[in-house]
Amino acid sequence: MNLKANRFFDNLKNKRVAFAGIGVSHADTIRMFAKRGVSVIACDKRTRESFDPTLAAELESLGVELRLGDDYLGSSDMDVLFRTPGMPFDIPRLTELRRAGVIVTSEIEVFLDLCPCPIIGITGSDGKTTTTTLIAEMLRGAGKTVHLGGNIGRALLPIIDEINSCDFAVAELSSFQLMSARTSPDIAIVTNMSPNHLDVHGTMEEYIAAKSNIFLHQNAFALTVLNEDNDITRSFKPYIRGEMRLFSRKGEVTGAWLREDGMICYTNISGETKELFKSTDIRLPGVHNIENYLAVISAVWGLVPPEAMHKVAREFGGVEHRIEFVRELNGVRWYNDSIATSPTRTVAGLRSFGQKLIMIAGGYDKQIPYEPLAPELATHVKTLILMGATADKIESALKNFDGYNGTPKIVRANSMEDAVAKAQELACHGDIVTLSPASASFDIYANFEMRGRHFKEIVAAL
């Protein structure tokens, strides 16, 4: 029994608790709060006509009050408001509500406070989901009970009663979830840092500050894992209060590192080094996945035996939308890398193949620069098919690159169907076509998963 959680919910029974946004994670949390006897207001900018009628009927049958439409946060008659992760903490309306005495929090913030077991939190610009999934796989392989969630697709607060003190909670944490957090996980991993989500955060400094909350509130008994090869994550080292482990693809560190001969090693704080396995044993392609494994090993060292680490490396085939093989048709291989919502993520994908690619790119503009992508496109891509809101910016960055000599050829498409059709027309036997957008999906799709699945459906029908 989680006494702290029980006290928390008991204290809410005489309060009105609102939720801003009724997405997947909030829907489960709303259900749980209502069943706990809390007075719940569910707020969403969608109108009643555009809202899922089945969900609306279910929530109202639980006693939930629905407030839908443009003025969904217009009233201040609430005591607590849970913001959805995509809603910045400092928008004017939330500031007004806080000044009116409303407690503004989030599902993940409350979970970090109430969770009875050790929490392993993972953030970074790239590699979060794969790293999170690998940690969960290794812990399970070592016989641990694992609760996986956060930004990876499931809210963890609704299952708080299922979690025991000897379990592990493994949570992928986005900058939006962390930006107002004042509790940090027991084990914090920062995979890397590069410009991302500047459409919301405004500046790189604000983005870095949000990510830093994953370790800034740790105590002296906590563990932090940082990427030694990344300038920004390396700059975090003076702020770590507890144990610090590093990982590096370029040299020996206290933590997991890649030796020149391709052997993955771990060196402890006493300087003792253990050889683990060859990087070529990792089933997932790409140097970036070697880095993901190094981060994971540093995080679970002492919790997972080396043989369990090696087993996952040999057997784990990857997460959907991350350089996911879709099919081979007429000698052409198709890959879905819809998770590549930033230039750095796209670069990692491009470097995973040993040949020049036909690449479909473009999407929603997060106000991040595309100039660093240009030399990689010139090196790794033979035909670039552009669509979406960022098509002009990507084309401009490539054409203004001094090393651009007309390769890759640039083709425009007006939809995913059109992009796939043009790729099929241009591809020859032995070619690889990859969807690697270097952009978010929100100009056309609700999320990168919908974009990736739509791409796979079109390719499957060829």
Structure overview:
This protein is α/β, with parallel strands linked by helices and 462 residues long. α6 packs across α11 and α6 packs across α12. Strands 7-8-6-9-10-11-12-13-14 form a nine-stranded mixed beta sheet, sandwiched between helices. β18, α15 and β19 form a beta-alpha-beta unit. The chain folds into three domains: 90 residues, NAD(P)-binding Rossmann-like Domain (Rossmann fold, 3-Layer(aba) Sandwich); 207 residues, 3-Layer(aba) Sandwich (UDP-N-acetylmuramoyl-L-alanine:D-glutamate ligase); 137 residues, Protein-Tyrosine Phosphatase, Chain A (Alpha-Beta Complex). It starts with a helix and ends with a helix.
Structural class: alpha/beta
Fraction of residues in helix: 25-40%
Q: Spans of 5+ residues with little confidence (pLDDT < 50)?
A: none
Distance between termini? 54 Å
Which geometry do the CA atoms define?
A: globular
Count the domains. 3
Quaternary organisation: single chain
Summarize this entry quickly.
This protein is α/β, with parallel strands linked by helices. It has helices at 3-12, 24-35, 53-61, 92-99, 107-114, 128-141, 175-178, 198-201, 204-216, 231-234, 287-300, 306-315, 343-350, 374-380, 391-399, 416-426, 448-460; strands at 16-20, 39-44, 65-68, 80-83, 103-105, 119-123, 146-150, 168-172, 187-190, 223-227, 243-248, 255-258, 263-267, 273-278, 324-329, 332-336, 357-361, 381-386, 409-412, 432-435.
Helix-strand layout with pairing:
Layout: H1 3-12, E1 16-20, H2 24-35, E2 39-44, H3 53-61, E3 65-68, E4 80-83, H4 92-99, E5 103-105, H5 107-114, E6 119-123, H6 128-141, E7 146-150, E8 168-172, H7 175-178, E9 187-190, H8 198-201, H9 204-216, E10 223-227, H10 231-234, E11 243-248, E12 255-258, E13 263-267, E14 273-278, H11 287-300, H12 306-315, E15 324-329, E16 332-336, H13 343-350, E17 357-361, H14 374-380, E18 381-386, H15 391-399, E19 409-412, H16 416-426, E20 432-435, H17 448-460
Parallel strand pairs: 1-2, 1-4, 2-3, 4-5, 6-8, 6-9, 7-8, 9-10, 10-11, 11-12, 16-20, 17-18, 17-20, 18-19
Antiparallel strand pairs: 12-13, 13-14, 15-16
Helix pairs in contact: 6-11, 6-12, 14-15
